[in-house]
Amino acid sequence: MATLDLAPKVLVGEGWDDFALIDSGHGRKFERYGPYRFIRPEPQALWTPRLAEWDADGEFVPGSDEDGGGRWVFNSPVPRDGWELSRGDVRFNAQCTPFRHLGFFPDMAPVWDWLGERLAGRTDAATLNLFGYTGVGTLALSAYGPVIHVDASKKSVAQARVNAQLSGMEQRPVRWIVDDAAKFAAREGRRQRRYDGIILDPPKFGRGPEGEVWRLEDHLPGLVADCRALLDADSRFLFLTVYAVRMSSLAIAGLLAECFADIGGTIEHGDLAIREQDTDAGAGRLLPTAIFARWRT
Fold first, then answer.
1. pLDDT, tens only, 112-122
2. Domain 3-16+101-296 CATH assignment equals 3.40.50.150
């Protein structure tokens, strides 16, 4: 049976040429995306900023409702249709979205690296990216074999296809599917499909293409069970990330431990975090962004 490692881990995202966490504090974060700098809300930045002033091109000002809302305020021109960034061989479009995001999640960079380590040397690994968003992780996985990318948002899948073209990877073996991720996983189980690895990045709340309602606390156990049915002892991983919920990484690790009780491997859990860029005082602080749990063989 799978072994649950109780000691939490931290996967740290470091900055690169096209991204940096410049500073954080007082419930906000100050980041650089290529040539542009932005301020966004970050409730977990409880400390005091290092810098006295943040000179930003734009800021997302949240609404009064804690469940969402808000608007961008710009201090200088920023391309409304986005601008190109890259990490490694993957190129993608960054854009100030109405949901405060910028078209990709930089804290997922160490996850993409870890998945690559699990599939090193493979060119035939079949992987599944559920809630795949704009496809940056999918394109990274496509170096190791065929990928099925599933997201309920037509706009996100369309942007993922554009990112594949920007990267020169439009001929990679990727199936781009607009569908409810949970229903797709359940159908794959009935088809007796099998994968070498699965990424899960479910939202706290969402709706499928036909209005299906998704609530993480209610529906995550069933989704993980359906994904477990798509993996076997020769599979390499399942990686689950959870954002914006009052939940412990140990809780989602316990869910994986239950679902993987009949198979070998190891279950680990902890935090995703981004390191502030180095300063004269030494290595930057770590800003936690999400919790994760993963199963690996």
1. 999 999 999 99
2. yes
